[in-house]
Amino acid sequence: MKKPAPKQPRDNHLELTIDHLNDDGLGVCRSMGKEVLIWGAFPGEKLEATILHKGQRRIIAHRQRVIQPSPLRRPSPCRQAQTCQGCPLIELQPRAQLDFKRQQVIRAMQDAGLKRVTVPEVIAAPQELGYRTSAKLAIGRRHRHLRIGLYRRGSHEIVDLKNCPLHHPLINRIIDVVREEILHQKLSVWDPRQGDGLLRYLLIRVSPANNRALVTLVTGRRDYRSLTHLAKWLQKKVPEVVAIHQNVNPGSGNAILGRETLKMLGAPDLRDQLGDFTVHLGPTSFLQVNHDQAARIYHQVTDWLQPQKDEPALDLYCGIGGIALHLAAKGAEVTGVEMVEEAVHYAARNAKRNGLDNCRFIAGDTARVVAELVARLPSGTRVVVNPPRTGCTPEVLEQVASLQPKKMVYVSCNPQTLARDLAILESHGMGVDKLQSYDMFPQTPHVETIALLSPHPELRKSRKKRK
Question: What is the CATH number of domain 99-126+290-466?
Fold first, then answer.
């Protein structure tokens, strides 16, 4: 006969001892027969918490008081940390953060059956704070109070951000001025319940090399006149803002950007430094938020790939050309593939500006374009892939493996999809020779990892036997 489950305390209070951290950096333990998740709680800690949500299998709890802290705990450098909850590791010592991220990668490799892969120590970021050079912030109101910030975990409630310590200082200045002017002009903000309002999101990109910024105001409608006053005031108060754009997104979904982007004031784009190269990027271009770590990765990818003069190299999910430019500078004939047309436009311009005529860029669906390229490229062509968090499709991996690249580098921001894709590549005879992880986002659970692969025909056979 089963023992009855312990009754939930009437006041919803719990006393917990944390067992481990999950991949999201949340403390995990068990209480009342359920898994409990709690922000800002570390292994071995004893604490008091209140229940926020209780499901059939899981409880979400809020930390009230740490009774017995971990020796790895430190004072938070952010006063809003527990309110925002965007940085679940911010109260954990830096060395422990790196260990946590390494264990993430190790678990992912083991779960995918990649037993021969060695996972070295994670390379720390030069800056723990102030490293974020971009921000995507929601704009809204709650109880008539203006809020500019991030969505609270698991909700559509906006947490008002003020002086985020992870942001480049220029980002925080811009947020303050925009907030001040919205209140002064009494501008309307997006109300998701009504599907109406002017200002929806504030997007900021900073070039730390030049201390200049590009700002994009995402709106629910055009209303150019109201926005012009805001844009002019912003440039007056923060002259480092060299470009202001409007993106119109009247849709009711969760997408941040709409299809229409309009230049408002200043330059059409932002000049920045990307590794060894000066580049330009537009209002919707993707670029890594941590410049120092991105430069390290570009150099490591180039060193591992060993591009050869006049030999072909393929750069998939190339963005504005960060890796492609470094490969082309070594003399390789580089073909970059990217789905976002604006990024391809800037990649081509960046190559031209840097005097590199040995690269070309193609806009289109990666699987379709790669299938066409593989038919023409010679066997052994060097390849680098840098996909989004979802990883590569099996079709893309199969096409790439069919080239049997002399060397291939996979750049990933998600250990789980990286491990999954490396296992697929292994089944096609491409084995991992080296792995290296980088702390691209200190204070958060995210980790960037690159893997070097080369042909290992014996792995194709061993994978088939295991099946």
Answer: 3.40.50.150
Cβ atoms of residues 49 and 61 within 8 Å:
yes
- Residue 201 counted as an annotated binding residue: no
Residue pair 231/264 in contact by the 8 Å Cβ criterion: yes
DSSP letters, 132-174, are: B-EEEEEEEEETTEEEEEEEPTTSSPEEEP-S-TTB-HHHHHH
pLDDT tens digits, 301-310? 999 999 999 9
CA distance 89 to 95: 11
Residue 150 has a pLDDT of 94
* 338 annotated as ligand-binding: yes
Residue 172 contacts residue 238 (beta carbons within 8 Å)? no
The second-level CATH assignment, the architecture, of 13-73 is: Beta Barrel (2.40)
Q: What is the pLDDT of residue 168?
A: 98
Q: What CA–CA distance (Å, rounded) separates 274 from 284?
A: 17
* CA 455/CA 442 separation, integer angstroms: 34
For residue 272, the cross-strand partners are 279
Q: Using the 8-state DSSP alphabet, how is residue 56 labeled?
A: S
Q: What is the pTM of this model?
A: 0.93
Q: Sketch the domain layout of the chain as residue ranges.
A: 13-73, 99-126+290-466, 134-274
Which pLDDT band holds residue 438 (cuts at 50, 70, 90)? very high
Domain 99-126+290-466 in the same topology as domain 13-73: no
Average per-residue pLDDT in the chain? 94
At 243, phi and psi to the nearest 5? -150, 130
Residue 306 annotated in ligand binding = no
300 annotated ligand-binding residue: no
pLDDT digits (tens, 9 = 90+) for 226-283: 899 999 999 999 999 999 999 999 998 889 999 999 999 999 999 999 888 999 999 9
| Single-letter amino acid, residue 138 | A
Does the structure show a pLDDT above 80 at 6? no
pLDDT for position 141: 92
Architecture of domain 134-274 in this structure: Beta Barrel (2.40)
Task: Please classify residue 55 by burial: count the beta carbons closer than 10 Å to its beta carbon, then call 0-12 exposed, 13-18 middle and 19+ buried.
Answer: exposed
Task: State phi, psi for 372 to the nearest 5 degrees.
Answer: -70, -40
pLDDT score at 463: 53
Q: Active-site residue numbers?
A: 413
